[in-house]
Amino acid sequence: MSPKLIPRRSEDRGYANHGWLDTHHTFSFANYYHPDFQGFGSLRVINEDIVAPSEGFGTHSHREFEIFSYIISGELEHRDSMGNIEILKRGDVQFTSAGTGISHSEYNIHKTLPVHFLQIWVKPDTSNLKPEYHTKSFSDNQKTNSLTHLISPTSNTSLVKKENDSTIGIHSNFHMFASILQPGKIVQHIVQGEEDGRTRKLYIHVTTTGGQVKINGSETLKEGDGIFITDLKPREEVLIESTGEKNAEFVLFDLA
Length: 256
What we know:
By secondary structure, the chain is mainly beta. The chain contains one helix and 22 strands. The strands form four sheets. The chain has a seven-stranded mixed sheet.
């Protein structure tokens, strides 16, 4: 069985401009609904958000989701009901395991510049988890011409006790990687998982910061584009090549 590649073009995503928030939705979210895009395995939300200066998301609640933000540019202030207060900048990945329930707010604290980030939600494999918060920073140097592992599964109920300290833990059979590819450079992704006869899938999203990539020498993705790849075997190779004139920043999700 050969892998199937199905592009998700930037212009086909859900879109809303609320004045203070310019947002694109890969999957159905808020007032955007598409019956064919309700999620992809445990991956339920990929929103690419640009928030105006001194604006943001007021205090609101979540439960039973793993929610994380990948900061592309600007400064985002996070406050939550667990007492966490943090200012997030480029390279930071801010992760909240909402579990039985949390409340938080996210604000652009800069007075003149917008904040640009990806908001991602994943459904955990376990319900009624204790809420937790965790942040790690991954520099541009780490990600340049490399596929950097950001998030990986944890078998512990507590993210603090995660076995692999180089990544953030998630309560799902789910991995996240990120890369900044210079023109002409190629990275290789090795599909995760056990060789137990079950297939896996990938979703790759190119941020709206310029550049373009080609997947396995066939499908080209421009900024804002994504692609669903299914029927993959663990240990199979997927090649991503930067074919534009600018650096291409993208994230890759590998899931059961």
